[in-house]
């Protein structure tokens, strides 16, 4: 099956459930092919200017699909057709909606693009008929498009995110329709997997499909909506992990850390990676807790150490906190874990450093200090000893710049 046959098959499949549009542009953003009835409005809806061909071409260099948000929270997927490294075409699927949009709000957004009269009414009618997709499900379509174009398997953490929204006029105050919260069953299944510490979480989660849509959480601000959704889900994951056996202190400390990382994130891409790392972290910790043969004392001690990685008290202070002698605590820890407390702390800090390096754009110096390493040079040396490469090399090999 050649590329055009693969793409034709892909487009036929995605249109089975919804009337989805696909548009193909050449590298100068001249229209080549489309089934979109309002294709002549796509440049305005995407807020494209004379620099857009250069900007999109620079995205093509990364060889990753792109989620684009445009006016009134329209979602698009952009990907790239290449041959021997040469860019041949831009492939665009969409738009769809991220959240339920009232007609007055849509009319105001279209008017802000300079489209009025009968042309505006026609476009509003066409856009009003578009489907509404949770962003994770829309990203699945992007993964399938990328595979059709490149034959490359990616995961949901592999996207670029671009916000192309334009400022729209003041929205008329009007009662907004209440969206269907059909994602509840899917959410409960995800939380159940975390509660179980199921290491097949990613695979199982990828097969779940939710209906309906979460209510708007950002007052029209899509990045804020996405951050708020991840913050809410982090809180739910923290409670699921506690039900799974993780101590409340550890679980809530983790939630605080991830929520702060989400608030500090500067892009959709960064928030998505933090979200994925958060879920993986909770699943692994619950799994370790449920399968831990160590005594309750050792489990409590390890959880205590996990919550004090950035500023670990001295071993005598820890022993006093636990109500045991230093010698007994050290001997039992070594006996049950095969490590000294210092070795355990070092290995946990390295694991958390790996997560931080992949899930945020925080500087290596900040990560080093946050995890309690005395200096960046010491952190780099310990990281190289454990992982076989420096923190910078680790980021670069995993596609983080």
Describe the structure.
The chain is α+β, with helices and mostly antiparallel strands and 401 residues long. The protein folds into three domains: 3-163, Beta-Lactamase, CATH 3.30.450; 178-291, no CATH class; 295-401, Homeodomain-like (Arc Repressor Mutant, subunit A, Orthogonal Bundle). It has helices at residues 3-14, 42-45, 52-60, 103-112, 117-128, 135-150, 184-196, 201-205, 222-243, 248-264, 268-290, 296-306, 315-322, 326-337, 341-359, 364-370, 376-387, 391-397, and strands at 22-25, 31-34, 66-70, 74-83, 86-97, 160-163. Strands 2-1-5-4-3-6 form a six-stranded mixed β-sheet, sandwiched between helices. Mean pLDDT is 83; it is low at 167-182 and 209-214.
Helix and strand arrangement:
Elements: H1 3-14, E1 22-25, E2 31-34, H2 42-45, H3 52-60, E3 66-70, E4 74-83, E5 86-97, H4 103-112, H5 117-128, H6 135-150, E6 160-163, H7 184-196, H8 201-205, H9 222-243, H10 248-264, H11 268-290, H12 296-306, H13 315-322, H14 326-337, H15 341-359, H16 364-370, H17 376-387, H18 391-397
Parallel strand pairs: 3-6
Antiparallel strand pairs: 1-2, 1-5, 3-4, 4-5
Helix pairs in contact: 1-6, 4-5, 7-9, 7-11, 9-10, 9-11, 10-11, 11-15
CATH class of the largest domain: Alpha Beta
Secondary structure: helix percent = 40-55%
The value of Rg in angstroms is 24 Å
**Order of strands across the widest beta sheet?**
2-1-5-4-3-6
Count of runs of 4 or more consecutive helical residues: 18
Q: Any idea what the shape is?
A: elongated
- The chain-level structural class is alpha+beta
Mean pLDDT: 83
Share in β-strands: 5-15%
Q: Please give the domain count.
A: 3
Low-pLDDT runs: 167-182, 209-214
What's the N-to-C terminus distance?
35 Å
Largest sheet descriptor: 6 strands, mixed
* Topology-level CATH name of the largest domain: Beta-Lactamase
Per CATH, the architecture of the largest domain is 2-Layer Sandwich
């Amino acid at each position: 099956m050649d590329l055009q046959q693969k793409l034709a098959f892909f487009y036929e499949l995605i249109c089975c459930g919804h009337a989805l549009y696909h548009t193909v542009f050449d590298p100068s953003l001249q229209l080549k092919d489309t089934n979109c009835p309002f294709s002549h409005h796509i440049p305005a809806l995407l807020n494209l200017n004379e620099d857009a061909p250069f900007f999109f071409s620079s995205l093509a260099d990364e060889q990753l699909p792109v989620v684009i948000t445009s006016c009134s929270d329209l979602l698009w997927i952009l990907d790239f057709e290449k041959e021997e490294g040469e860019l041949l075409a831009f492939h665009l699927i969409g738009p769809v909606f991220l959240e339920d949009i009232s007609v007055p709000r849509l009319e105001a957004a279209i008017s802000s693009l300079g489209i009025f009269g009968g042309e505006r009414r026609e476009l509003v009618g066409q856009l009003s008929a578009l489907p509404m997709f949770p962003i994770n499900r829309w990203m699945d379509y992007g993964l399938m498009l990328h595979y059709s174009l490149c034959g490359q398997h990616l995961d949901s953490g592999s996207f670029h995110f671009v916000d192309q929204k334009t400022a729209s006029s003041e929205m008329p105050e009007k009662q907004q329709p209440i969206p269907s919260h059909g994602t509840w069953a899917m959410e409960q299944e995800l939380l159940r997997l975390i509660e179980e510490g199921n290491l097949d979480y990613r695979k199982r989660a990828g097969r779940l499909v939710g209906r309906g849509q979460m209510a708007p959480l950002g007052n029209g601000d899509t990045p804020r909506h996405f951050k708020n959704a991840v913050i809410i889900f982090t809180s739910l994951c923290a409670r699921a992990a506690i039900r799974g056996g993780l101590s409340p202190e550890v679980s809530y400390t983790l939630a605080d850390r991830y929520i702060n990382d989400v608030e500090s994130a500067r892009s959709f891409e960064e928030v998505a990676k933090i979200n994925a790392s958060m879920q993986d972290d909770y699943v692994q910790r619950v799994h370790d807790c449920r399968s831990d043969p160590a005594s309750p004392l050792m489990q409590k001690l390890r959880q205590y150490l996990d919550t004090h990685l950035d500023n670990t008290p001295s071993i005598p202070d820890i022993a006093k906190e636990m109500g045991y002698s230093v010698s007994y605590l050290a001997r039992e820890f070594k006996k049950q874990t095969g490590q000294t407390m210092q070795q355990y702390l070092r290995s946990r800090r390295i694991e958390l450093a790996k997560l931080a390096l992949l899930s945020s754009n925080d500087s290596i110096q900040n990560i080093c200090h946050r995890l309690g390493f005395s200096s960046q040079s010491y952190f780099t040396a310990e990281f190289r000893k454990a992982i076989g490469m420096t923190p910078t090399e680790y980021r670069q090999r995993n596609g983080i710049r």
